Structures are given as C-alpha cells and as structure tokens.
Amino acid sequence: MSTTTAPAPAQTPERRSGFGTAFGRLARAREASIVLAVLIVVLAATLTNPNFLFSADGYRDLWLTPSLLALVAIGQAVVLITRNVDLSVGSILGLSAYLTGRLFIDLPGLPMIAVILIAVVFGGLLGLINGALVAFAKVPALVITLGTMYAYRGINVWWTGSDRINASDMPKPFLALGTAQILTIPVLTIIAVVVLIAVAWWMRNTRAGRECYAIGSDPAAAELYGLPVTRRILTAFVLSGALSGFAGVLYAARYGTINSQAGSGWELDAVGAAVIGGVAIFGGVGTVWGAAIGAVLLMTINRVLPVIGVPDFWQRAVVGVLIIGAIVLDRVLSLRQHRKLIEGREAKQ
Amino acid sequence: MSATTTSTRTTGLRPIAEYDRPLWQRLLLTRETAIIALFVIVVVAAAVIVPNFGSKITMTYLLLDMFPVLIIALPMTAIIVTGEIDLSVASVVGLSSVLTGVLTQAGVPFGLTIVLAIIAGVLCGAVNGFLVTVVGLPSLAVTIGTLALYRGLAVGLLGTTAVTDFPAFWTDLAKEKIGSTGIPVVVILFIVLLAAFAILLHFTRFGRGVFAIGLSPEAARFSGVDVGRTKLILFVLSGAVAALGGIYYTLRYGSARGDNATGMEMQVIAAVLLGGVSIFGGRGALHGVVAGVLLIGVLGSALRLANVTSDVINIITGVLLIAAVVSSSVLAAIRSRRKSTRKPRLVGTGPGNA
Q: Does Glycoprotein appear among the keywords (chain B) (predicted)?
C-alpha cells in the first residue's frame, strides 16, 4: 500500500524568526487556504443574497450548522492521525442522541448535566470497543469500524424501532441549549470551539498527542521505539467515540427530534471534513484545526448552493470534488517538498 | 530470522512450513472451506427451522436480490487482493441507474442505453484508477471522494424524481426464470462473469501479478509486473461491473433513482472480507467470496422469513464481519506463538546463537 510521508507544513526547513516569516508560515499553512475558501464561499453567497450573512438567522446558522460536524471531525482527525479510521461515528452519534432522549423520558429526575455526561461516557465506551478490537486483535480499523457501524446502527434501529423522540419529550432548558447564544454566538459553537482548543492543545503540546503523530507516521518504528501504541490507539478511539456521543447530545438539543436514522452518513462527512482540512488519510499529518475548518467549509457549501442558484442535489458532487481536490493538492505539495529537500541536500554537498 | 512469522501478520502470507501439512489438511483447513461450511450449515438449518425458506420462490428472490452484490464482489476481490479498495461501487451503481433512466426517457434505444451506461461505469473506474496509479494517491481516500462525487452526479441529474418507464422486454428479462427451475436468467450472466474472473485471477499471469502486488508491490515490480497497469485495469473492471449492476438494479425494481443502492459498497466489502480475502492484500479466493455473499444473503433472507427485523440482520452482519477478521488474526497469533516456541527445536539453534 502506498504511504504518503509528507512532513507537516509546520516543519518547513527555513527557521528564521520574526513577524514576517511567522505570517508567511501562517499564510502558507493548509488551514489558511481553507479559511480563504470559506470566506470566498460566504462572500459569493452574501453578494447573491445579503440575507445569507446579514439576517439574524443566516448569521446564526453560519456558526451553528458546522458545530456538530466539527466535533465529530475533530475526533475523526485524531483517529486518522494515528493511521486508523472510524467509520462508526455516525452510528455512535445516533445511539447517543437516542439515549439522551430516553434518559429524559425514563428518568425525569436526572439532572441535565448527568444526562449529558452519561451520553458522552456511553459514546466513549462504544469507541473503546472499536479501539480494543483494533488495538488488541491487530485488525485494520476500516474493517472493525465497518462492522461496528452496522452493529451500532442495528442496535439503534432495534432499540428505537419506529419510535421517535420529539421536542416535547425533552426539558425546555435542554432544548434551549440548542438555540441559546452568548454575544450573538450560539452556545453550541462556543462548546465546539472550546473542545477544539482543548484537543488541539493536547495534540500539539502533550507527549500523548505527539506520540499519536509518531504512531501514524510509522507504526512499526513507534512500536520498536517503545511508544505505548496500544494505549494511544485506545485513547484516540475513545476520544472519537466520546466526541461523537457529545455531538449526539447536542444533536438532540438542536433538532429536538431523534429517530433511528440520526447521524447516518455522518462518517463520510467527518472523514471528508478531515481530509479536506489537510489530515492525511494514511496517518501522521494534519491538525484538528484543519478538520474543524473542513467541517465548516463542507456545511457552509451545503447551505450556499441553493442561495447561488444551484439545486442542493449537487451538494454531494461538490463535496466529492473538494475531497479529491484536497488529496491531489496534498500529493502535489508533498512531491514538491520532497524535491526541494533533495535539491537542498545536493546543494550542501 | 523469523521473517516468516512477521509476514503472516502483515500480509496473510502463509509460512512455507505450512506446506509440510498433508494435502487434505491444506484444502480443508482454509478460511474458504470454513465459510463454505458455515454457508451450508446455515442453509440446512434455515431449511429445517424456518418455514417457507426451502421454497422455490424464496431462492428465486434471494438470487435476484443478491445479483448486484454477487457480481460487484468479483472485481472487488481482485482489488482488495492488490491491497487497494473501491468504496465508490455503490455510487457507480446509482449513477449508471440514473443514466439508464435519463437515456431511456430521452428515447435512446435500450441496447444503446446499456452500452452508454457501461461506458460511464468504465469512465468512473478509469478516474479512480488514474488517481490511484498515475497520481499516486491512496485508494481509500480517492474512492471516498468519488463515492461522494458519483453519488452527487446521480442525485444531481434526477433530483428527487424517478424514471419508472422501461421497455417491458428488459424489465421482464431481469426477473425471468430459466424454464420452471426458479433460477433467474441473470444467474447465467453471473456464472459467466464468475468464470471470467476466476480464470483471470487464479489461472493467468495477470492474476498471479495481482496476488504478487498484494504480497509486496516492490517485489512484484522487480519481477516484471506492471503494477500501475494491473491496478488501473482492475478499477476499470470494477466500474464496468458496477454499471452492469446499476442497469440490472434499475430493471429489477423498475425505477431509476439517484439514491439507488446507497450503502451497497459496505455490503460488498463485508461479504468479500467474510469470504476470506485479507484486507492487507495478497490473499483470497473467489469461491470463498461467493460463499461469503451468499451467506449474508441467506442469513438475511432466512431471518426475515422468521420475522426477525432488518436491524437485527444488520447487527448480525456487523458482528459476523468482526468475528471473521478477529478470529483469523487471533488464529494467526496463536499459530505464530506455537511456531516460535517450536522453532529452536526444529532449526536446532542453541542458546546464544544469534
């Protein structure tokens, strides 16, 4: 299997200090180009229809819509960085969302925070099952999470049946969480950003986070070097499961109705968001920032298409072109960098 | 020193020592035999326990429903053997289904429609193959992208509308049975394709190249296998067969819709892996895959007849898939442990002999 071992953009050879280069590095970073793409998309939509940005609903949706997918994509990015993949995230989201609703109905005395915690821990446990199967049986995550995607969704449909949970079944303060805003910024977005900052800090500055990159770059070397590969992979999957579970809770709060199909298809959107955001599907490269911005781009395009006159049926095609464009770009950049490094070596000799 | 034991882990390559075992053991103790045995057990058990399962009509519907998965699993087997994957097949089914509908609606003769839909499938496969082999991208990423792209084109072309008017001759043919046997006519097409892929994969130079690539692309390249061309051909075949599946799907259900066969890629891949093909590449056989597809089909059909709902079938499919891959990896671990404890005796290396 071909492996792309492109070094992260942050590791460019020149290391001059000063504001100029720091700005240059920021501008060259993959994340910057996606932010630019988001801005262009928003601008195009706003020029066509000012309501897209300048109405209260439009402005709020701009923040709100990507927040849930961003949470799932952050977890997916961490899993991808360890050279694994989690296809079960959509099913975990659906199960946790339904569990949230059931807890409110069946145990009315339970405080809201406990319900949220239970659903997050439940998602984490489902992630732990994935992680344990991947890490201990040494089977590719693609196969395991394909299996658990089926199994979790099956359990969800079995449990839910044709039942659905409606907004009237859940307490008002909980539903308010889905629409509340602080300083015009929706609470769900603030939550997503806080999680993003925490996970980004963890990936960048802690030993565990750096080891995730090392494992993804070269699993065999990480094993030989004595890194706790099993534990890190477990952590990545638990994190992915817990974040999907958390997204499930927020899904319940935002949409108010939960049926057995909640979150189906999200796995591809999450992988797509991460890949568009510069996370390499074969591990070791990328940031959770990128994945989150990728989620913003995906969901914003989804809303923009009808505004600029394209029927939203074409949304998936646009997503496909974006994913392919992103991985081709990665490939081109890594080839160029590879050539530059070789030239640099030859110039020194 | 223990190069053989490590390679069992990563490639599914069986160590030479295993060929010491008698022929009957080698033939009977394989993943393929296990899955065929399981298939036979499930069929017999279902025929005995589930009322109406043994009837002709059940078998007919089972084969009609499984046909697209059966044929798409053939090229998928070859692709996974090379260590790649094609997640876009169900989207190609959807796209060719929509094209069949759109072209029929435009008054194109149906024979030409079929040809054009298959050409579209070939193009879809060629795009995948080009991105994987020429641009050098991982197939998992490429086909996640084209999964969205081809599905998007299919949904975009028809929106939420559907084309339901097709020539009666063709829709009848898709459901036609051979005489009074209850066996659908399309089974003949499947057998032809199976024979073609079996010969291609197991009896030709090309097929040996496919397995060689899966075991080690570098070694395959050095021994004269054109790795890029081989993979490109396989992706094109996969696209063509998926398009055929799309035309069939349209005729069978008399409806061309953008969301036809959504999620079928997962069914195909689950069946192929259940049939003993290693996800690491280099190992697999078509008889196991056919048994894998039929096993999932029979299990689903029997459970449905026994009034078990489709969600339980999904749970079982998932657990079965995990059990199949985990069991083989656990068995390999046990075997390699046993071998490594036995090794010093066999090779005769004393302690301290590096």
A: no
